[in-house]
Design brief:
alpha/beta, Spore Coat Polysaccharide Biosynthesis Protein SpsA, Chain A, 487 residues, seven-stranded mixed β-sheet, 17 helices, Rossmann fold
Amino acid sequence: MKVGVLVVAYNAESTLARVLDRIPDATQLQLAEVLVHDDHSTDDTHGVAQEYVAQESDGNSPRFHLTVVRHPENLGYGGNQKAGYTYAINHGWDVVVLLHGDGQYAPEIMGDIIDPIVNGDADAVFGSRMMHRGEARKGGMPMYKYVGNRILTTTQNALTGLALSEWHSGYRAYRVSALAQLPFVGNSDAFDFDTEIILQLADARMKIVEVPIPTYYGDEICHVNGLQYAKDVVVDTVRYRLGRSGFGSGHLGHVAEPYAFKPSPYSSHGRILQMVQGRRPMRILDVGCGPGWLSKALTDAGHTVVGVDIAEADAVTDRMSNFVKADLSEGIPEEVGGDFDLVLAADIIEHLPDPARLLNAMAARVRPQGSIIASVPNISHWYPRFRITAGRFDYDQRGVLDATHLRFFTRRRFLRVAGEAGLEHVSFRHTGLPLDALGLSNSKVVTTTIGNADRLLVSVWPTMFAYQFVYEFTPWRGGALRNDLPA
């Protein structure tokens, strides 16, 4: 395999040559290239590196190809790595080892870092100073750094579900083909770049292996602002956790199923199940059924369900009596039939260019005494309001600000569109925060504290705190509007 080393160097004129000298002979024979990236140092780091290249073959010169690059401006720790990994990808490296030019990490054990990837056992290998109890402190790691490292690592493991002994070592190696699959170019240019790479590896389900490394703290200058670093890595990790739940752009973490089943009693699916609970077996049309989990719950309750969606999910036909593949922006296809007791549009009309057209088509499929239940996200919820007020408006992978939404609804706008489609509402429910999507619905602390507080706020001020509106309608027959629940 073509193994290369990226040496990130900044003001390392006094240590760089010794670091290169310490690469063992056996490891040198494995290396196709060593790339020294001088990040626009203010000392003579570049000169030292050039002098190292110019050494004659007198037994002291390196037995590896050495390339030296001086950046015309300082890219930052993360930016320096971005440039180096891009070089590795473009030059056909198979493995890239990250080595610091200040000597903090031992080149002598580089083989241990490389071997798991060469042997096909890992996509990334991280050196850990915490795998052997007490070794970090014996190696001179200051107590405040040790404590901070342990607190941050514990917090990040809890948020991500990983079990790394250390998140904050800069001694690591990557399979270059794995790096090429990650959107690392958009990562931070600062020191939290290392954390973002871990999060992206975890999100891509790539295999991470840790190996023990010695700890060394000398007189090198630390360029890390500890408090800023701690803030950055925690924010990154929270972004990952939210991304895995569908919030955010998905740069650090993304959700595999954008339209998951939400069974809790306070979600849109839960509210719909409550609204039909106790009714005799019905013939139901589930418009925009997605993977079909809501249809399955209704089928299990004794109803006959026909589903329609633009894509046929795996095994969706097993979750309902009939499935029809169709583009709902063009209406409901004739093969669906008609004469349904209930037509559902759970979280679908906001995805269509003409919601009223679909609502009209749904009304045409309902029996004289039948009804329609539709749910929409609330764009006036505090979350999008906060994002807009803070000047941080952007789309998420799902939720109120789902990037695939073509229409946004307040409650008034939703009812107006339904009225224009000839529908009158007969009952409604509101939903609170999507605890299901956040993976928190099984937490007793959350459901008894945050959940209860949120539901109280929803009942007091629904246009601000209701995450979704769920309404049942009947085709207008000239009667007075009815409300089963107080506004």
